[in-house]
Design goal:
This protein is mainly beta and 404 residues long. The chain is 0% helix and 49% strand. The protein contains no helices and 30 strands.
């Protein structure tokens, strides 16, 4: 297999990775902020080292891309740091440049463990379990991508939690009537181990908070196992909360996907409207043969997951059986997964003809004996999947699987 080597040894905290429309964004304490192109051959678009005169910490802890304001040539990025501050950065692909547009002051609430951004809103969660929602001023340049300084944001709400534990997933959704800011989290229970919870802030389009509400799957959708099922509906599934703490959690409305070390995942459907916030009963997703280290839900009804060893990468159709192939795993309610594997483009091997065509993003070559272990960081779009791995001698590499 071939991959892009990005570090001779793992940075501490580890490298952060996100992919959007053929551009990979990476952030770490050693190399700073970097943007890579995965189209037309590997290419480093831009890089920006952390300025120690302005950055009180050079150790990033969370990373998000603003999909709402991404244009063909511009992208906005938000990064949280271990000292509690966060920064906003803009990528200009045409100028091949990165610039810092805003840098928040450090906080005594600890590391920014999760972050979400949909301009002008930014949502952060700290190590001290403080959830904060900010609103940036809007100027004549509504997206603000060309500005050197965005100005200071206004703190709309700050909520302290005593039950929201990692792994966490933050999300911001905008509509014509308002904005929803959400945090999905692991929650310990006294009788059944770990489960999941969801807290949501609803705002008007002007940024006024309407309400804060909570949901868990504890009391929804439970039916006796002996109850007759409708011939047109799948039988009800009765799940208890897994005793083990989740290894990964991802929420993109309406899908909440949770991964565990026992090779399984659980998919929850979330209902969120003006009248109701609820989490439906979980549905198990099976197919992995070892512990699932990372899972990520995309924007179009697809998800990806990877095993801890990095040798089992699966793409899931959450909306139904749109994927065909010999490797499909289809439970009776309709979700399907395909195990994807790299193929040798010169071998002419057609044994996996029904598989998606998967190739690697080539920058440097390692021997087959140099094993790769997944670090759990995953990201994907409609064309590619990015996996962060660590090789046996300690260096890190990005492996990009292309479906083109």
């Amino acid at each position: 297999m071939t991959e892009t080597e990005i570090a001779e040894r793992p940075p501490i905290p580890p490298l952060l990775v996100r992919l959007h429309e053929g551009t990979v964004i990476t952030a770490d304490s050693t190399a700073g902020l970097r943007a890579w192109s995965t189209r037309g051959g590997e290419s480093l678009i831009a890089t920006m080292a952390w300025d120690i005169r302005t950055h009180s910490s050079t150790a990033p802890s969370s990373l998000a891309i603003d999909h709402s304001s991404t244009t063909t040539n511009d992208m906005r990025i938000s990064i949280g740091f271990v000292d509690g501050n966060f920064g906003l950065y803009a990528l200009d692909r045409r100028k091949r440049s990165l610039k810092c547009q805003y840098l928040h002051a450090p906080s005594t609430n600890g590391t920014v463990s999760a972050i979400a951004f949909a301009f002008p809103y930014l949502l952060t969660m700290t190590e001290a379990q403080l959830l904060s929602l900010y609103h940036f001023p809007i100027t004549s340049d509504r997206l603000g991508l060309g500005q050197d300084d965005l100005g200071s944001p206004r703190l709309l709400s700050s909520l302290k939690s005593h039950t929201a534990w990692p792994p966490l997933s933050l999300a911001i959704r905008s509509s014509s009537t308002g904005v929803s800011a959400s945090i999905a989290y692991a929650i310990p229970t006294y009788t059944a181990g770990w489960s999941v919870g969801l807290q949501e802030l609803r705002l008007t389009a002007e940024g006024t908070i309407l309400e804060s509400r909570l949901a868990t799957p504890f009391s929804h959708g439970f039916k006796p196992l002996a109850a007759p099922a409708s011939p047109t509906q799948p039988p009800a599934i009765r799940l208890t909360s897994p005793s083990a703490k989740p290894t990964s959690l991802s929420y993109t409305h309406p899908y909440l996907l949770v991964a565990y070390s026992d090779n399984t995942m659980t998919l929850y459907m979330v209902i969120s409207n003006t009248q109701e916030l609820s989490i439906g009963p979980g549905k198990p997703l099976c197919g992995h043969t070892s512990s699932v280290s990372g899972a990520y839900v995309g924007d179009r009804g697809k998800a990806i997951s990877v095993s801890a060893g990095g040798n089992d990468l699966r793409v899931w159709e959450l909306e139904g059986g749109l994927v065909s192939g010999a490797s499909r795993r289809r439970p009776f309610w309709g979700e399907a997964s395909v195990a994807i594997r790299p193929e040798n483009r010169n071998s002419g091997d057609r044994r996996n003809a029904e598989q998606p065509k998967v190739s690697s993003f080539v920058a440097s070559t390692t021997s087959d004996s140099d094993t790769m272990t997944s670090k759990g960081w995953l990201s994907f779009d409609e064309e590619q999947v990015v996996l962060l791995g660590e090789k046996s001698h300690g260096s890190q590499a990005l492996v990009v699987y292309s479906f083109a």
